[in-house]
Amino acid sequence: MTDPNQPIDPEVTADAQARPATDQGAEEQVVEAEVVDEDAAAAAPESATPADGATGADEATPAPGEGEAAGDAEVHPDTARADQLQDDYLRLQAEYVNYKRRVDRDLPVHKTRAAHDVLESLLPVLDEIHLAEQHGDLPEGSPFRAIADKLEQVLTKQGLERVGVKGEVFDPNVHEALMHGAWDASDPELPSDATATTVVTVLQPGYRAGERVLRAARVAVADPS
Predict the structure, then answer these.
(1) What mean pLDDT do residues 114-122 have?
(2) Of all residues in the chain, what percent are helix, strand and coil, respectively (each to 5)?
(3) Helix (H, G, I), strand (E, B) or coil at 103
(4) How confident is the model over 3-12, as pLDDT tens digits?
(5) 82: region left, alpha or beta (phi > 0 left; psi from -120 to 50 alpha)
(6) What is the greatest pairwise CA distance in the chain?
(7) Higher pLDDT pick, 204 / 20
(8) How far is it, in rounded angstroms, from Cα 214 to Cα 210?
(9) How are beta strands 175-181 and 217-222 bridged, if at all?
(10) How many helices (H) and strands (E) does the chain have?
(11) Per-residue confidence (pLDDT) for residue 93, from 0 to 100
């Protein structure tokens, strides 16, 4: 309690008079701050709404690869088996098409080779017929002569050709020279204008089928003098 008889300090009195005004201003600032905070609080949900929406969109959007993984997990076993069988069928079909193309391409070659093998196996028979002709064992009109002629006709139709004739120019592709003798200018079967090595004797005839030489003719050759 203040003593009324105590002298009044002018500075204290001035502070006391000035303090209420300061406190009153502080209270007004507090009230204004509270009002501003309430307004900000009211506006804050509206400004945060887009962010919340974006967050929801992010949560609703599946991560990359999740949809594919889910799709793969949902494939029925029968569907996977059907796809595998389809792939196997297409692969087998392609292999068959390639195989058929190779067969169609090689078929003529195999047929020709088989025919040549048969002709080559008959060469010893033809040699016996040729020797019989040289020795006069196949006279004209005899049954064996008729059989030999028919056999040669059939083989000729199959492309068989005899090579190795006396008087022709020596060719190492179809002739096999076993002997080299002297030139006989008096032999009428030898060409008079020969300039190269010539076949003078056929020891064993050769045979050719198409472009293939089944057997070279064995001959004796001589150089013209």
Answers:
(1) 92
(2) 60, 15, 25
(3) helix
(4) 544 445 444 4
(5) alpha
(6) 188
(7) 204
(8) 10
(9) parallel
(10) 5, 6
(11) 94
Is residue 207 within 8 Å of residue 162, measured between CB atoms?
yes
- The answer to whether the CB of 200 falls within 8 A of the CB of 169 is no
C-alpha distances (whole Å) from 66 to each of 51, 54, 189 are 25, 20, 97
Q: What is the sign, positive or negative, of the torsion defined by CA atoms of 15, 21, 27, 33? A: negative
Q: How high is the mean pLDDT of the chain? A: 77
Mean pLDDT over residues 142-169, rounded?
92
| pLDDT of residue 73 exceeding 70 | no
What is the C-alpha separation between 9 and 20, in angstroms, rounded?
18
Contact (Cβ atoms closer than 8 angstroms) between residue 174 and residue 164: yes
**H or E segment to which residue 180 belongs:** strand 175-181
What is the C-alpha to C-alpha distance for residues 206 and 164, in angstroms, rounded to an integer?
6
- Kindly give, in sequence order, each residue whose CB lies less than 8 Å from that of residue 155, ignoring residues fewer than 6 positions away: 119, 122, 126
- Per-residue model confidence (pLDDT) at position 178: 93
* pTM attached to this predicted model: 0.55
Euclidean distance between CA atoms 195 and 224, whole angstroms: 6
pLDDT, position 193:
87
Instruction: Return the closest-CA partner of residue 151 out of 118, 113, 125, 131.
Output: 125
pLDDT for residue 61: 54
Q: What is the dihedral of CA 62, 68, 73, 74, to 10 degrees?
A: 90
pLDDT at 176: 94
